[in-house]
Amino acid sequence: MQYRGLRGNRLLTRFITLALFGALAACGGGGSDRYQEAIDAANKKEAEARAAGVTSPCATVSQCGVLTFQSPMPSCSNWSYKPYSIASPSAAAASAAAAEQNVLARQALALAPASGTVCPAVVPPVPVLTCVANTCGGA
């Protein structure tokens, strides 16, 4: 009697396991596709911000700013920077695109699979801005 009960439990366990896998597959299971789409969206927005963030004109360093980008993929160097001219006609578009890129990158990171990588608590320093020959730069 007990053997049949144990065998019945195994069949029930297998059935429940298969049902759960089926339910998970039916939920869309394409998490990696959503993650890749989120990475692509963040990268596209970063390219847009970098293109709009031109380095001239500037007469003084006060006319220079820094666009900050967050990596949409887990890595130890999560941030990158680009000096740009806040006096340029496209400065507002560059700033807005960089802000949107950061939102998209955080959304992508929320979808990322666990990497298991441990990184030191180091954030790359924001570049010191310069204005040389009417061009913003960073050192």
Q: What does this 3D model show about the protein?
A:
- By secondary structure, the chain is of the alpha+beta class.
- It has 3 helices and 4 strands.
- Helix 2 (31-52) packs antiparallel against helix 3 (91-111).
- The longest helix is centred in the first third of the chain and has 25 residues, at 2-26.
- 19% of the residues are buried.
- The model is unreliable at 18-30 (pLDDT under 50).
Structure annotation, total helices: 3
- The outline comes out as flat
Q: Could you spell the SSE succession in H and E letters?
A: HHEEHEE
- How do the strands line up in the largest sheet? 1-2
Main pleated sheet: 2 strands, antiparallel
Q: What is the end-to-end distance?
A: 79 Å
Fraction of helical residues: 40-55%
Classify the beta-strand content into a percent band: 15-25%
Number of strands: 4
Counting helices, strands and paired strands, the structural category is alpha+beta
Question: Could you report the average pLDDT, rounded to the nearest whole number?
Answer: 83
Gyration radius, rounded: 25 Å
Low-confidence stretches: 18-30
Please give a quick description of this structure.
The chain is α+β, with helices and mostly antiparallel strands and 139 residues long. The protein has helices at 2-26, 31-52, 91-111, and strands at 64-70, 79-85, 129-132, 135-138. It has three helices and four strands, in the order ααββαββ.
Task: Give keywords.
139 residues; 49% helix; single chain; two-stranded antiparallel sheet; 4 strands; alpha+beta
